[in-house]
Design a protein that fits this description.
By secondary structure, this protein is α/β, with parallel strands linked by helices. It has three domains: about 180 residues, FAD/NAD(P)-binding domain (3-Layer(bba) Sandwich); about 150 residues, FAD/NAD(P)-binding domain; about 70 residues, no CATH class. The chain is built from eleven helices and 22 strands. A seven-stranded mixed sheet has the order 7-6-5-2-1-8-19. Strands 10-17-11-12-13 form a five-stranded parallel sheet. Strands 14-15-16 form a three-stranded antiparallel sheet. The structure holds flavin-adenine dinucleotide (FAD). Flavin-adenine dinucleotide binds next to α1, β5, α7, α9 and β20.
């Protein structure tokens, strides 16, 4: 009998890591194929650091991953995924190096969906003309151009649109979030305030953070927010909650769904994280198109299908660190399927996040309080910044195969310099 074929869809954070962990755990017992429309990783969390240092983020944050897959004897196909057929265990994709290729079909024994999400900026009225963001290198560079060439020192608004979290009776119970991921707006607030100071253009007082929820970054848990929000307040940030979402962006500001508006020269927004169009309505997804899984990241109706990262319904908030934990679980689940005996613990979701605060300082957060746990660690100072940069280097060097000892090590070495 031939080797079981594992097909991994998507090769950014979650996809590359899971493909590499599957090879490590399942050894030679599987054939692995990975498909993505591009052949490089976009190292998204470090985009703000590059922008505030005046660099085009594309120069330093895109790295080619094919050599790592080759080293693992895994195959890579560059193509646009068009359709998943869970009943016939096949995926349709179009090779996309040149225009004009017909679609191809590929079958699988195990499918791992790591396709991330669609960031729905196109559904925010006025974004194209008046909005800015930091969630990819194109938009990061656009903000950089604006900051260094056009910015007039006016008010800055930073926040999220409403996230519509998927529902399904087949999902394990998890809390409901009204914003997809609010680490980035909080981090940007701090690093932007520092950039303004360094450029003698002001400080936190000209920045307003806004959230569609009752509290920004609710998933950080009450204990951390009780430390963080007074710092935000003392630094002089404006803060608006309960916006319900963004109605439109216009030249002079943002209008919210609760009827209020905020004046701003620079409108930095994060949108609704939506599922890809071709995922919606499949028999493996929730009512929004995210993949339904149990806590072992396995679909209950199609047990040969797994999901990791932002594409999974259980990934809330949409954090790379949660995708990493899921990648460890899925690699062991598949290893067990092909005869390698592994102990697997179910997903114990938590926020693990390194944020930049500018001037070589950062924060480190590790908490599962939002999910009912008792971990709650917040550290601020120089070491979290070094660890954030160190994580990028480790990720590049190891080709996404970052060991999980990264978490306790960070807590051990993080300093306590409060900013
Ligand atoms: C500014 C910012 C800062 C952040 N900071 C942090 C942080 O400090 N820590 C943290 O843990 N998380 C952070 N995040 C979140 C993190 O970036 C995401 O959770 C992570 O990128 C999700 O990884 P993923 O692989 O699941 O999805 P993605 O990174 O979205 O990757 C999906 C992959 O699928 C491919 N793909 C999609 N559709 C198709 C298709 N039809 N055909 C072929 N290929 C396709 C894409 O090309 C891509 O390579 C941050 C996010 C932002 C925006």
């Amino acid at each position: 009998m031939g080797k079981k074929h594992v097909l991994v869809l998507g090769c950014n954070f979650a996809g590359l890591t899971v493909a590499r962990f599957i090879r490590e755990q399942a050894k030679d017992n599987v054939k692995i194929t990975v498909i993505d429309r591009k052949n490089y990783i976009n190292f998204i969390p470090n985009i703000p650091i590059e922008v505030f240092n005046g660099h085009n983020p594309a120069d330093n944050l895109e790295f080619m991953f094919e050599k790592f897959l080759k080293h693992d004897k895994s195959e890579f196909i560059q193509g646009e995924i068009e359709e998943i057929d869970p009943v016939n265990r096949s995926v349709t994709y179009k090779p996309n190096e040149r225009d004009g290729s017909p679609s191809e079909k590929i079958s699988y024994d195990y499918l791992v969906i790591a396709l991330g999400a669609r960031l729905a900026y196109d559904k925010i009225e006025g974004f194209e003309e008046y909005g800015h963001t930091f969630s990819d290198t194109f938009y990061g560079n656009k903000v950089r151009e604006y900051l260094y060439n056009e910015y007039k020192g006016g008010p800055i608004a930073i926040g999220s649109d409403r996230f519509i979290q998927g529902k399904s009776p087949k999902l394990p119970k998890i809390p409901v979030a009204l914003a997809a991921c609010e680490g980035p707006p909080v981090e940007l607030g701090f690093s932007f305030a520092d950039w303004l100071k360094r450029h003698k253009l002001g400080d936190a007082k000209i920045i307003t953070l806004f959230t569609p929820a009752k509290t920004i970054a609710e998933d950080a848990g009450k204990k951390i927010l009780n430390q963080l929000l007074p710092i935000v307040n003392n630094m002089g940030f404006g803060y608006i909650n309960d916006t319900v979402g963004i109605k439109r962006i216009y030249k002079e500001g943002i209008e919210f769904r609760n009827g209020n508006s905020l004046e701003a020269e620079l409108k930095i927004v994060f949108p609704n994280w939506e599922a890809h169009e071709f995922m919606k309505g499949l028999p493996i997804v929730d009512d929004q198109g995210f993949v339904v899984t149990d806590l072992y990241m396995r679909n209950p109706d199609y047990p040969e299908i797994f999901a990791v990262g932002d594409a999974a319904s259980l990934t809330v908030p949409k954090l790379g660190a949660i995708g990493h934990m899921q990648a460890e679980i899925v690699s062991k689940m598949i290893a067990n399927e092909v005869g390698e005996k592994k102990d697997v613990d179910p997903l114990n979701p938590m926020v693990v996040c390194f944020g930049d605060m500018g001037s070589h300082k950062g924060f480190y957060m590790h908490t599962n309080e939002w999910w009912g746990g008792d971990i709650s660690v917040l550290k601020m100072g120089y070491t979290p910044y070094l660890l954030k940069m160190g994580f990028k280097n480790m990720y590049y060097t190891l080709g996404g195969k970052v060991p999980s000892w990264g978490i306790p090590l960070s807590e051990f070495v993080a300093d306590h310099t409060l900013v």
